[in-house]
């Protein structure tokens, strides 16, 4: 693919981070290796050369992505069966409480205009919030109001609260902050002089109440990446260094992909707690292509059950090219992440429905995974892929001869059309990052709590 949408997971200590990347050309030549230290954890990123057409990166049980990209060289991740086996928090859980880094304190102090006393103020606030939730001694809303209270006034700045939340990686558009933002807007409309969103104690508490759990989590430094500003700085450095690499060429196996701009380069990150950052051409839409295999597999496994799915497709690496015409020793495709397995998985998707309803079902599931971010369809890429599908047709007829397809399968042309359509679904880096975060969070949307 010329523009390759990649969603994968990095491991930083005990933290999951989901990343969506939009790469320009497949890169060829020497490997670029980058080692950074973050939170006392060494992270090594390797830009792979491309003598191979694909690679399979295992991401937990029976799950792999196939594409050239920045690969995190973290062997424990490849061995882990489940995030919980590595003490990784899921929805509703928080990492151990940590003191704010100096970078965090500097950012908060600048926003609050209290640089000299910010460490003491934050320590007192965190201690109070901990007691508020553990011992219920005081109201967390009151503690948050006191933190943002203006000197000599019984009013607090809601705009400064929003700036502090942004410094932790949370966005104003975060669905968990929607009710707070709507309430704030209603107060602003009621008062012609908004005075930089200064609110009385009662109005401030009413405004933040729907989102107080998230606000408290951020202020207590319990988001999954504590030193967010430092983390983003490290990622931006890597991003800018990789941007200078010009070797390689775009994929040519599909005509539409061969016409893509090789200079497009963007990155988005979404953690399981909804911390987000993006760089470069992150708003540029691109077709998911083989990244769809991972999500289709997850959708079908949730719909029919993993045991049923694996009665038709295996779960071991093939050790062969992604489009090899072969089956495993049991007469099944090796796994759902190579073309043979992905075609069989597609044939299992609501195969009692019409083709239109099957496509709509998957599209709606993608939009759920993306939490409302952009998911579209590129018809030109679909038509181009269908016109150059001889290999996939040969593979499908081989599997039909070996009775790999489930009963009730519609014609091969129809099944392959659906497979090509799902490869031609369109996302952006930000969409891919949210979808990856959903997988990293065990299927739950961390920034929506669904």
TrEMBL record:
<dbReference type="GO" id="GO:0006543">
    <property type="term" value="P:L-glutamine catabolic process"/>
</dbReference>
<comment type="subunit">
    <text>Homotetramer.</text>
</comment>
<feature type="domain" description="Glutaminase EF-hand">
    <location>
        <begin position="141"/>
        <end position="226"/>
    </location>
</feature>
<dbReference type="InterPro" id="IPR012338">
    <property type="entry name" value="Beta-lactam/transpept-like"/>
</dbReference>
<keyword id="KW-0677">Repeat</keyword>
<dbReference type="GO" id="GO:0006537">
    <property type="term" value="P:glutamate biosynthetic process"/>
</dbReference>
<dbReference type="InterPro" id="IPR015868">
    <property type="entry name" value="Glutaminase"/>
</dbReference>
<dbReference type="GO" id="GO:0004359">
    <property type="term" value="F:glutaminase activity"/>
</dbReference>
<dbReference type="Pfam" id="PF17959">
    <property type="entry name" value="EF-hand_14"/>
</dbReference>
<protein>
    <recommendedName>
        <fullName>glutaminase</fullName>
        <ecNumber>3.5.1.2</ecNumber>
    </recommendedName>
</protein>
<comment type="similarity">
    <text>Belongs to the glutaminase family.</text>
</comment>
<keyword id="KW-0040">ANK repeat</keyword>
<dbReference type="Pfam" id="PF04960">
    <property type="entry name" value="Glutaminase"/>
</dbReference>
<dbReference type="InterPro" id="IPR041541">
    <property type="entry name" value="Glutaminase_EF-hand"/>
</dbReference>
<keyword id="KW-0378">Hydrolase</keyword>
């Amino acid at each position: 693919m010329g523009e390759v949408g990649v969603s994968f997971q990095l491991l930083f200590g005990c933290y999951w981070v989901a990343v969506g990347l939009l790469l320009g050309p497949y890169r060829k030549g020497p490997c670029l290796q980058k080692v950074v230290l973050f939170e006392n954890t060494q992270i090594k990123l390797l830009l792979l050369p491309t003598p191979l057409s694909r690679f399979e990166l295992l991401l937990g049980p029976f799950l792999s992505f196939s594409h050239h990209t920045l690969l995190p060289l973290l062997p424990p991740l490849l061995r882990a069966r489940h995030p919980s086996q590595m003490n990784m928090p899921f929805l509703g859980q928080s990492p151990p409480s940590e003191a704010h880094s100096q970078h965090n304190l500097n950012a908060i102090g600048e926003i609050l205009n209290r640089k000299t006393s910010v460490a003491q103020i934050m320590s007192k606030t965190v201690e109070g919030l901990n007691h508020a939730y553990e011992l219920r001694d005081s109201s967390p809303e009151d503690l948050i109001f006191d933190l943002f209270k203006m000197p000599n006034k019984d009013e607090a700045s809601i705009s400064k609260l929003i700036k502090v939340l942004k410094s932790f990686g949370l966005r104003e558009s975060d669905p968990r902050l929607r009710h707070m933002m709507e309430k704030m807007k209603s107060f602003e409309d009621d008062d012609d002089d908004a005075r930089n969103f200064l609110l009385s104690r009662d109005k401030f508490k009413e405004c933040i109440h729907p989102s107080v759990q998230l606000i408290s989590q951020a202020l207590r430094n319990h988001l999954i990446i504590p030193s967010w500003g430092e983390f983003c700085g490290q990622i931006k450095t890597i991003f800018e260094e990789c941007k200078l690499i010009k070797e390689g060429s775009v994929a040519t196996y599909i005509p539409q992909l061969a016409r893509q701009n090789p200079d497009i380069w963007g990155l988005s990150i979404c953690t399981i707690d909804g911390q987000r950052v993006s760089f470069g051409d992150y708003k540029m839409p691109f077709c998911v292509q083989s990244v769809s295999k991972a999500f289709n597999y997850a959708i079908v496994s949730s719909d029919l059950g993993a045991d049923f799915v694996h009665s038709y497709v295996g779960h071991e690496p093939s050790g062969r090219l992604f489009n090899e015409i072969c089956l495993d020793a049991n007469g099944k495709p090796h796994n759902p992440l190579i073309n043979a397995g992905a075609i069989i998985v597609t044939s299992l998707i609501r195969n009692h429905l019409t083709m239109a309803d099957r496509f709509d079902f998957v599209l709606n599931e993608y939009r759920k995974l993306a939490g409302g971010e952009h998911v579209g369809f590129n018809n030109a890429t679909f038509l181009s892929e269908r016109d150059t599908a001889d290999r996939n047709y040969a593979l499908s007829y081989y599997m039909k001869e070996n009775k790999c397809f489930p009963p009730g399968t519609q014609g091969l042309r129809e099944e392959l059309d659906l497979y090509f359509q799902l490869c031609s679904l369109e996302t952006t880096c930000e969409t891919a990052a949210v979808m990856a975060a959903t997988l990293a969070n065990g299927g739950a949307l961390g920034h929506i709590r669904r």
